[in-house]
Amino acid sequence: MTSTSRPDLQALEAEVDELGTRQRVRRPTLASALGWVRWAWYSLTSMRTALILLFLLALAAIPGSIIPQRGSANPSAVRDFVVRHPTLAPVLDHLGFFNVYGSPWFAAVYLLLFISLAGCVVPRARRHWEMLRAAPPATPRNLYRLPAHQKWTTELPPQQAVREAAVFLRTRRFRIAQHSSSVAAERGYLRETGNLLFHSALLVVLLGIAVTSGFGFTGTVLLKEHDSFADTQIAYDSFSPGRMVDVGALPPFTFRLDDFHASFVRSGPTRGAAAGYQAEVTYTARPGVRPKVTTVTVNHPLSVDGVNVYLTGHGYAPHFLVRDGSGRSFDETVPFLPRDGVFTSQGVVKLPDARPHQLGISGFFLPTAAADPFTGQPISVFPAPDNPAVVLGVFSGDLGLDSGVPQSVYTLDTSRMKLLAKGVLRPGQTLTLPGGQGSVTFLGFSQFAEFQLTKDPGKPIVLGAICAAIAGLLASLGIRRWRVWVRAEPDDTGRTVVEVGGLPRTDASGGFAEAFDRLVAALRTRIPPEPAGPAPFPERAGSPSLQVTSDQEG
Amino acid sequence: MPVDVGLATTSNQLITGGLVAYSLAFVGYAVRAAFGVRVPDADAAPTPARVLVGATSPAGSATAGAPTSVALSAGAPPSGSAEGTVLDGDAARARRGREAVGPRDPATRFGEVVGKVAVVLTVIGWVAHGAAIATRGLAVHRLPWGNMYEFTLALTFAAVAAFLGVLARHRRQSLGLLGVFVMIPVLLALGLAILVLYVAPAPLVPALHSYWLGIHVTAAIIATGVFTVATASTVMFLVADHYAAAVSRGRSVRFAAIARMMPDPGVLDRVAYRAYALAFPIWTFAVVAGAIWAQYAWGHYWQWDPKETWSFITWVIYAGYLHARATAGWRGRKAAYIALLGFATVLFNFFVVNIFITGMHSYAGV
To answer: Which of residues 238-257 of B touch A (CB under 8 A)?
Structure first.
């Protein structure tokens, strides 16, 4: 049997075409602008295009996971990459490969995908809305042509059989339309509702991300113990506001790092790994309110005035007392940035006010110092401050701070300085500079913590949309949508013939036939077959060579 | 809290025991397939027939056509087009017919017994496997999925669980050969875990001290396990479908002996689809839970860390698969290839990203 001989089923199939593949418009032959626009629109919103865009999105996401990215956890990776690939790097940079997820071509792919999505969802939502309000489609003429079909005779009069079927289908949560001699029923509308919910929710996710990039900000700040932070742009070490953020009106909270504590694994294969760290902070949500004390740990940020404060890193800040040649003393506690897992920390101290020459100290802080077994050099062997020491080089000359070129506080430009002295100091020890130029005393150390402060106003939108998306996904993948028609009519001999036909609107995961069987078996108890009636399938059961096998799932 | 060395050793012994049981089960499934026990089982009671008009099912694809309704009209054209499956082509029907009738010879009976033993061995191995994970967890006083070794143990456990779930649902069909295709990756992964990825039990870094470990990683483990079974089924589907299409055109195929052991391509495709449709929302949830956790731990819910990126790529590819199944011209084999691509990204994420690409998720421990 070919499909052309069953027009009613064909019409149903066209309607069943769930995912909009039907939306195909012929390429315009006339040079009509509107025609081309319409063609472009339908091409963009077709499923095929959406599929290709999905794959393009996956493909476009790959380079960002392989090529180092700016603004990632390890910003120096890009610099290293540029050094290693001097010819390739400028090309990649020009094409945006160091910032893939902010590049125009990545944005183009996902924006096209979302436009395609919107162009698909909106008409489908309209169709679905109409369908939700409409009755199930009228009973097809030939029910036996449907994918599932059963037929039997009953002693009930046709009217009563139809009524029974209608009541039965309603209790099975079908939506029904009762006709004179038949019932049309459909259930599983929630499948398409879920499908539309899922896809619309993805659009809302994009909206939430846009809200964050417009109205959110993120910044980092490094605080030594007893340092305070007030939420103003100048107080941040780095700050990247959204386009719509009024940087003059940041939330007016302040907080202070009272104490920082880190602990490390002391034995076993992961010896030296961090076991936990916590920052004790005192914060004031608004000027005038009472300060509160809390603990910030890695998985437990502080939330204050719409801003989340995360603990993202920590390290040591050695404490020096420096005397210059004029006898003036400087009390400096300077964060040294950890360079490795055992917290070999590097940093500099700049003393532009030292006389007769400016002084600069470049050095390492070793939390647990020991001699390298091969070179004898002092190295750090454990991240906890069990045996702290500093390795210092002291320079004098011009720090270059007045040259106008911005300098990092963590590097020392020694091009116009000369090395005065170097040495290894333990707490309390002093390095005397030659020629009466002063001394450097290593007094001890305090700890510092790095915080990231983030305001993310789009986050609740994203979270809500994602929850809706998952709910929609579950409905759209888990709910069966199908139609059932029951017809009861008297035949020539006056008996009532009951016919049931079933049509799955999607049966990707199978099981429609079983569901139909179960439904009809239950219906037969409501509309009992005639005791001496013929076999359930009179019109087909006559074929003796029939090999019917059960392929169904258990 | 110190690591309990005795329990950790017990865990290692249990996993070795599980590996042995799985290996024997693998041999059992292969023997069963070789002795010609095919789908459907000869003892599967034929259900009353129902008339299927037209060989193609309208809403589902050709591959997902109403399964019970093997076409009865002799003139029905094979539903499989270029990439479709022959659910009810003459060859497939003849094959099934031959299996449905005919007395059971001793060899077949032997195969059946071996197959049942294989299932029992799988369950025994699975229990030992579960006990190994539990003892490892007790030894380190935490959920034992903090490094690649532990993660591999857990996801192979999930894969075998998913396979047993499929067997439970399809009791009347000897999807035994699926056992071969599931046990191959499971055995490979476990062997790799024990020989290469093994790390002695140890506490976790602070970033992993969160109940989100239980939520995010568990979801990822379950999804990956189910994806593994789905992929095994897809591979079998491709072999079976290729064979069926070739037979319907009267062409010979290589490895026909293996292809003939395959269950019906339609059944395989549906097993695969159900698994994907189950795993995809779980995967979505895993990614979202990871984003929520990242929000607490790192201050950003999404920052295109390599692991995040590849999870996203996997998600996109499987989304593509689900859409392809509903798109004319992409059903059947093309969709199956997309699904295989999806699993390739899962493997890439697990092996390449964990070991070779540094990012915030560097917890591999190797």
So the answer is: none
